[in-house]
């Protein structure tokens, strides 16, 4: 289990693949939700009329009929602060922000020891270039959804990651991370099965 929020984003900046690890989020607040969606609900009037004809007499017509076949989405909304300089973990080691945990390194792919603005812009650079989707999802780890937890880390895409300036040394980050299927891994596995 981990108390940290750790987001890993694979990206190719033209000189090969890079993996950015973003874990220097402070003062996090989160919402973990399942956005339910039903295959069959009150929008299918004709199908509902047939099903309601099968109901016992006296069953109210105003009750909904729902069929849940896994529709919907698992999403984690995160709000947290991103501050200037290296952010230490509980052992005093720097929390990573980009491709390197070394706070002395700074480039288009890493800003572990950077200013809050540099961290924001490096993160958004990954978001702009990486294009996370079901073929190349990001990985979110927090709580039991981690390599040290009882649940697998989550393959995710993100919705509207944004940073709002709070001061010269602090931004507030917010985004929704929506669990997705890793089609790259699924397709590779199906090819191996066929062979």
- In sequence order, what are the helices and strands, one letter per element? EEEHEEHEEEH
Which strand order do you get reading across the main beta sheet? 3-4-8-7-6-1-2-5
Radius of gyration: 22 Å
* Beta-strand share of residues: 35-45%
Distance between the termini: 37 Å
Share of helix, binned: 10-25%
- Global morphology: elongated
What's the β-strand tally? 8
Mean pLDDT: 87
Overall tally of domains = 1
Largest sheet geometry: 8 strands, antiparallel
Concise summary:
With 195 residues, the chain is of the alpha+beta class. Helix content is 18%, strand content 37%. The model has no long low-confidence stretch (mean pLDDT 87).
Short descriptors:
alpha+beta; 8 strands
Describe the structure.
By secondary structure, the protein is an alpha+beta fold. It has one domain. The chain has helices at 45-53, 116-130, 183-194, and strands at 2-12, 17-22, 26-36, 72-83, 97-98, 138-143, 154-167, 170-179. The chain is built from three helices and eight strands; from the N terminus they run βββαββαβββα. The mean pLDDT is 87. It is elongated. It has an eight-stranded antiparallel β-sheet, covered by helices on one side.
